[in-house]
Amino acid sequence: MAKTDIDCDLLIIGGGINGAGKARDAAGRGLHVCLVEQDDLAGHTSSASTKLIHGGLRYLEQGELRLVREALAERERLLAIAPHIIKPMRFVLPYVDGLRPRWLLRLGLFVYDHAGGRDKLAASTSTRLSGTSLGEPLKPELTDGFEYSDCWVEDSRLVVLNALDAAERGARILTRTRVTRAHSSDGMWTVTCQQQDGGSLAVRARALVNATGAWVNELLTVMQITPRQHLRLVQGSHVVLRRQFEGNHAYLLQSPDRRVVFAIPFEEQYTLVGTTDLPFTGDPSRVVIAEAEQQYLLECVNRFFKRSVTAADIVSTYSGVRPLFDDGSGGAAQQVSRDYHLELQQGAGAAPVLTVYGGKITTYRRLAEAALALLLPTLGEAEDSRWTESEALPGGDLPDRDLPRFTAHSMQRWPGLPPALVTRLARLYGTRMAQIVGGAQRLEDLGMNYGNDLTHAEVRYLVATEWARSAADILWRRTRLGLTATDSAVHQLQDAVAQLLR
């Protein structure tokens, strides 16, 4: 493949939520944007979250009121712009005698209700557990507790939809593209990239954003810039269990070590349990759950639920590495701030680079605004008014932002399709599902079925529109169908993707 040159205002390196969010914001302000990612979009930390849009009750306990306030304010903004992939969820917090006192939990929930301008989400309440459906799966000594509201998110789809919106506003999105060299001269960056197919790519940019997560300091070294900030890598792991309880609510479980663990309904048939906090060293692209983490999560579940679980109940696991900003204060991994830190530096040729440390998926949009507020003056650009807080992400322009009503309407529009398929497509693609289904009257009209009603029409859309390049991209990051996919279906799907890419 011949070498190709791209000229842009802003080169963003890293295709996780922070990179994709900044690409969307910058492209919407009229900047010429290019984003490069060495693997798939959301290929690492951004698809390994607990999949929550939340303020973080435990961050209040650590005194991070600014972070919590910002995150709480973002919940309903994100719910409004992506109601197909984000939904409200009620969380049950059982009271445990001997751990956090009732007054502290009540105070924390009061702040949680009022710090972020809550409007649509229901307020917290005290709740009886004994003799109720909420308490039925729990051990009998857990007689009461609290309920509060947060939101669930399809995390990897949030990344993809930000990238898709950026592309539709003119950004270049290049996956499987790894930076190998970078230098600055005369106020410009020249970056050499290696592509998966063996080709090379040269990109010239007026400014660069280092949003590579666990690789931020490694990239600075490639750019011949000395990192000025400390990076602390913390591993977080989750287990997926066979479904442990009925209902659409989740549980927040307190541990004796003062950590908290979530138990959340997941893909209808399962319960997601996480997360852990362990110091990480090694290759961030090869992180797997440790036996001690797995045991910790199982013990937490068994401390609260009547039905005992063992390793045999684990259907799947996943782990990610959080690239946290280390202020040098020390402390345990779970005490390191989840807030973001932005570092603006310049290369030898006076070209700016902005490095992103830390951050939560909940606050990615505000992080993007803060990043552009720093970058725009270096580019001689005026900072325009914020726009991403009100513009729907692709597929999120549902009438009245009402997913159940949209799903019901879609079932009437395509009555010959399986209801479970229509429901799944609606919650993954929103109004964009019409680009997949078109005029289909029966399941057979959508082409080959690779299992779980994953059809060729959907696969074709994901390859053509959402940068899917492998079966894993589709099964684990564009959908969650990898949980039930058979080996034969995976092989068939991989062959189909290869054919579509020719």
What's the topology here?
Blueprint: E1 4-13, H1 17-28, E2 33-36, E3 52-53, H2 57-61, H3 65-81, E4 86-94, H4 102-114, E5 125-128, E6 144-153, H5 155-168, E7 172-174, E8 177-185, E9 188-195, E10 200-210, H6 216-222, E11 230-242, E12 250-254, E13 260-266, E14 270-274, E15 278-279, H7 291-304, E16 314-326, E17 340-346, E18 352-358, H8 364-378, H9 403-413, H10 419-429, H11 433-437, H12 456-465, H13 471-478, H14 487-501
Parallel strand pairs: 1-2, 1-10, 2-7, 4-12, 10-18
Antiparallel strand pairs: 3-6, 4-6, 5-6, 8-9, 9-10, 11-14, 11-15, 11-16, 12-13, 13-14, 17-18
Structure, explained:
With 502 residues, the chain is of the alpha+beta class. Helix content is 31%, strand content 26%. It has 14 helices and 18 strands. It has helices at residues 17-28, 57-61, 65-81, 102-114, 155-168, 216-222, 291-304, 364-378, 403-413, 419-429, 433-437, 456-465, 471-478, 487-501, and strands spanning 4-13, 33-36, 52-53, 86-94, 125-128, 144-153, 172-174, 177-185, 188-195, 200-210, 230-242, 250-254, 260-266, 270-274, 278-279, 314-326, 340-346, 352-358. Strands 3, 4, 5, 6, 11, 12, 13, 14, 15 and 16 form a ten-stranded mixed β-sheet that branches. Strands 1, 2, 7, 8, 9, 10, 17 and 18 form an eight-stranded mixed β-sheet that branches. Strand 17 and strand 18 form a beta hairpin. The longest helix is centred in the first third of the chain and has 17 residues, at 65-81. The radius of gyration is 23 Å and the shape is globular. The model has no long low-confidence stretch (mean pLDDT 94).
